[in-house]
Every structure is written in structure tokens, then in C-alpha cells.
Amino acid sequence: AIEHAEGWRCDQIVNVTIPAGDHNAKLDFVSRNQIQLNLKINGKKKQLNLDLPKKLNVPDNGNWEITSADLGQDFGALGNSATQVTDSDTYRGYESCTYQRSEVICGPQGCHTEWRTVYGQQQVEYFERRTNQQIAVNFVKAPQSVILAEFKGQRNFAERIYRYKGQCY
After folding, report:
1. What is the DSSP-derived secondary structure letter of residue 83?
2. Are 145 and 78 in contact (CB under 8 A)?
3. CB of 49 within 8 A of CB of 4?
4. How many Cβ atoms from other residues are within 10 Å of residue 4's Cβ?
5. 77 contacts 58 by C-beta, under 8 angstroms
6. Measuring CA to CA, which residue among 163, 151, 147, 123 is closest to residue 36?
7. 60, 93, 95, 98: which is closest to 79 by C-alpha?
8. 48, 86, 127, 141: which could form a disulfide with 146 (CB 3.0–4.6 Å)?
9. What is the pLDDT along the chain (169 residues), one digit of tens a residue?
10. Cβ–Cβ under 8 Å, residues 74 and 68
11. Phi and psi of 138, rounded to 5°?
12. 71-99 burial, b for 16+ CB within 10 Å, e for fewer?
């Protein structure tokens, strides 16, 4: 029995049956204390929230386990995480930027200050960091560790890490 589903209060128990077969799913660690599993069952979107123990520490690389007692379910999870991070060479150049400049505007009733957005250029130095994260999880029934379901997923993202940003002018 999955104890939490979208739109339900935490004190209500909701049983969700997932038919055998391959399903597209999204698994998110939405906080240190909760996993969210989103999938479609018979054309309807389902969101399952699984509470995690506070002591759980899922490593970036390596094996991990969440017992059925820790999940508060009749199944547990055995997982493996793998993270690969690569950094590009350093780039130097110019990028567009904006800054605020005050302008004094005078008219028949007197003068006042207005702030204007000004577009400019700034010198930068940065590198690109690309991260590939892979996760594999077997949801298992205790005590024989019978595999009930498998999840495999990955995500890729890139970020620009600035080492220097000059003044915008």
C-alpha cells in the first residue's frame, strides 16, 4: 500500500496498483525527507510520495538501501547512484549585461529622478560544468528481497560557473 498520493491528506491510506509492464516514470528527491514518483497508470497521471528517514544519505556514487520500515511501506528500495562531472576549458570574452542609471528629468513642475535600465557589455571569465547523474532502484519485498519493480533514470544538466565578471558599461 502506498500511503500518500496527490490530493490526499497524509492520514488517509490510498492503495495504488501499478500493472506489470514498462512505464515512463519520473523519480525526484524533492527534499531530504521525500521521494516523489510520477507516472501514468491507464492514461491517468499518478503522483506517489514516499517519506524517507532523516538519516538517509544517498551518495552521488555508490550503493544505498532504504528498508521497508524506513519507508513505512511493505517494500524497501535498493539503489545505485553514479554521477559524472566534467568541466570545460576556461572561456574569456564579453557578454551583454544591464545596469540601472539615474536620470534627472525636468519639466514645468520641477525636476525628479528616474531610474533607467541601460544595456551594456562586461568582460567575463567562466567555464561550463556538465553533470550526468544516473540512478537505478529496485523496489523489493522483504524478507527475500523479491524485486517488485525496477526504476532506471538519468538527468543531464549544464551550468556556467563564472570566475570573473567585470563592470557593466
Report:
1. E
2. yes
3. yes
4. 20
5. no
6. 151
7. 60
8. 141
9. 333 333 333 444 556 677 777 878 888 878 877 888 888 888 888 888 877 776 667 789 999 988 888 887 888 889 999 999 999 999 999 999 999 999 999 999 999 999 999 999 999 999 999 999 999 999 898 777 789 888 898 999 999 999 999 999 9
10. yes
11. -105, 120
12. bebebbbbbebeeeeeeeeeeeeeeebee
DSSP string, 132-144: EEEEEEEEEETTT
Q: Which residues contact 1 (CB under 8 A, 6 or more apart)?
A: 13, 14, 15, 73, 74
CA distance 125 to 160: 10
The answer to whether the bond into 19 is cis (omega within 30° of 0) is no
DSSP annotation of 167: -
Name the grid cell of 24: 515512463
pTM (two decimals):
0.65
Specify the pairing of strand 91-107 against strand 76-87. Answer: unpaired
Closest CA to 160 of 87, 110, 93, 104: 87
Question: For residue 20, what is its C-alpha cell?
Answer: 506489470
